TrEMBL record:
Superkingdom: Bacteria
Gene assigned in the entry: mutL
Any one GO BP annotation for this protein: mismatch repair
Name the record gives this protein: DNA mismatch repair protein MutL
Job description of the protein: This protein is involved in the repair of mismatches in DNA. It is required for dam-dependent methyl-directed DNA mismatch repair. May act as a 'molecular matchmaker', a protein that promotes the formation of a stable complex between two or more DNA-binding proteins in an ATP-dependent manner without itself being part of a final effector complex.
Taxonomic source organism: Nitratireductor indicus C115
Length: 340
């Protein structure tokens, strides 16, 4: 038996197996990077359900030419935090770009704000090209072509182009809800176009972004939710009982601006609407929790959106209480003892 160290490419491909499940995961990672770079405009274009092409253009901070090789290297991040329990950016693992580069053809061109030149780097199936000067606007453009060409086994797991396109649209919508002041667009040959002009970052803006993303009808049938307890703040909108869906797909949750999917949060919504909705109907919500990052663990898994709260009971109680209160004050729910 011989024990050997795996090559960087293989290590990155293994990581990609976790982080990059499908085209929508690439879009999620790249949009997060653009947001972390402070972009106010993010343009996403896709072709072939994102398998042929994903292109993301942002007007964020950009990357200097000498840092481009670092950006595509494993465990290299500018969001460095020696304390992984105090994460304020969306990314922090320094894994996405090298992972994507190990399974696809990635090119990244960037110009920092104020610089008068731009540069580009490429990674194809793990092979990194040298940095070359190019012409570009300030900001960053990332192009990912032929996703999974280097890992054909993964390609076999892809659903139809339509399904992959739908998943991409969902990712963009989910991120867009959390960043109303950022203008998002989605275009390309996948016929998934979306234009979300920037709105203000306040409650009014949020409601307008909700109308853009979740439909005007929801925004007109939603109650404002606002509550705070022991340093945990909750805000957002929740549907009135007559506005429901057959599944819980339209329940959006955010923790410190990061989209999450979480059984406990979904459970809290069921609890809140328990006696006003039949079992097979689901409320529509967009809820934002903000709390001290030390009180929540978002590191559970790179691709999964679950979270762990230090005090899950507090969070549940806050959500259930706030929604019931909103239903009661709007006359949508008879006032009861309030006991859950
Ligand atoms: P992470 O986001 O966890 O740091 P990534 O692999 O996604 O890891 O990105 C690595 C680094 O590349 C980031 O920390 C950032 O410095 C830089 N970077 C990536 N995308 C962008 C972008 N769109 N604009 C500016 N910098 C970027
Ligand atoms: Mg990232």
């Amino acid at each position: 038996m011989t024990i050997r160290q795996l090559s960087d490419t293989v290590i990155n491909q293994i990581a990609a197996g976790e982080v990059i499940e499908r085209p929508a995961s690439v879009v999620k990672e790249l949009v997060e990077n653009a947001l972390d770079a402070g972009a106010s405009r993010i343009e996403v274009a896709t072709a072939g359900g994102g398998l042929s092409l994903i292109r993301i253009i942002d007007n964020g901070s950009g990357i200097t030419p000498d840092e481009l090789p670092l950006a595509v290297s494993r465990h290299c991040t500018s969001k460095l935090s020696e304390d992984i329990h105090d994460i304020r950016s969306l990314g922090f693992r320094g894994e996405a770009l090298p992972s994507i580069g190990s399974v696809a053809r990635l090119s990244m061109r960037s110009r920092t704000q104020g610089a008068d030149s731009a540069a580009e780097i490429g990674v194809e199936g793990g092979r990194v090209s040298s940095v070359r000067p190019v012409a570009a606007n300030p900001g960053t453009t990332v192009e990912v072509r032929d996703l999974f060409f280097a890992t054909p086994a993964r390609l076999k797991f892809m659903k139809t182009e339509r399904a992959e396109t739908a998943a991409i649209t969902e990712v963009v919508k989910r991120m867009a809800l959390a960043f109303p002041e950022v203008r998002f667009s989605l275009s390309g040959t996948d016929r998934n176009s979306l234009e979300l002009p920037s709105v203000s970052a306040d409650g009014d803006g949020l409601l307008r972004r909700i109308a853009q993303v979740m439909g005007k009808e929801f925004s007109e049938n939603a109650l404002a939710i606002e509550a705070e307890r022991e340093g945990v703040a909750l805000s957002g909108y929740a549907s009135i009982p007559s506005f429901t869906r057959g599944n819980a797909m339209q329940q959006y949750f955010y923790v410190n601006g990061r989209p999450v999917r979480d059984k406990q949060l979904a459970g809290a919504i069921r609890g809140a609407y328990m006696d006003v909705l039949p079992r097979d109907r689901h409320a529509v919500v967009a809820l934002f929790l903000s709390l001290d990052p030390a009180l929540v663990d978002v590191n559970v898994h790179p691709a999964k959106a679950d979270v762990r709260f230090r005090d899950p009971g507090l969070v549940r109680g806050l959500i259930v209480g706030a929604i019931r209160h909103a239903l009661e004050t709007s006359g949508m729910r008879a006032s009861t003892s309030g006991a859950e």
